[in-house]
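QA checklist item 7 of 12: single-chain prediction sanity check.
[x] sequence parsed
[x] length recorded as 333
[x] structure emitted
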Amino acid sequence: MPRLRLWLCPLPLVALAVVACGGPFPQSTLRPRSDFAGQVDQLFTSIFWWAVVVFVVVEGLLCYAVVRYRHREGRPAPKPVHGHTALEIAWTLAPAVILVFIAVPTMRTIFATAGEAPATALKVEVIGHQWWWEYRYPDLHIVTANELSLPVGQPVQVSITSADVIHSFWAPALGGKRDAIPGHLTRIAFRPDSVGVYSGQCAEFCGASHANMRLRVLVLRDSAFQAWVRRQQAAPLVPPRGSLEARGRDVFAKSACIGCHTIDGVSKGIIGPNLSHVGGRTTIAAGLFPNDSPHLARWIANAPSLKPGALMMQMPVTGADLAAVIAYLQSLK
């Protein structure tokens, strides 16, 4: 019975390992989707296999020594060996050679991923806020939030900073982490190679809702990206007079919302995300909730109850006025 228990002890660990391998893993670095991420993945893979070789050799020699020189009744103790020149040279040179095979590709990858993007690259400025992301496309005159849209197959130069505390911008499938530091610019350049939606988040503890500071990168075909650019560059929709959306626009313009949010032609607040085309986003609250009427209603009514520490105050907008504001925001595609 004790022996049976001994065999059963590892089973929970095995079960846990199997569950951990089940997926899905939306923020895995092991499925690279850009040139930057691909180079890092190749480096990781090569180092991993070197580690496997070292592990097998070391553990093999250990097992051999344990079995070969185990204690046996009636046999004398193994004779100790003092000094073995060839062996000592071997175990000195072998690690040095392995380190060379690791160091050379590591340095190559560091220099390859630290380079600037070409002059024709799409330029994006990322600004971290507690707890959301602001994206500016200076050459396209676009400002948006939380969902970063990029064209597939084109180089991108991302410049990153922060408006308050230290954050860290991280979209694992596309590139490594880059700190967002107030008053300082960090950069990362990459070329997305696959259309898709890639999740990311802040990777530096930044306060109460650090875990809720998510982001989404939408890599689009060139035609879809150009269509998105045209929508973002267009003026926000002006709803027809007498419509529910027009009533919502009036309520918005008379509320405290204008002190924090920008809607072109309506308000110029800069504390919160730009809402000029908020209806075209798939999520709200930095990727926490889908951009639909129920979640918008709860968010507008009491954002801190959904996202601890959120700076957005509770808004005294209810009933028909709340429904009108939601209809207006959803019309801003």
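[x] summary fact logged: The two ends are 68 Å apart (CA to CA).
[ ] second reviewer sign-off
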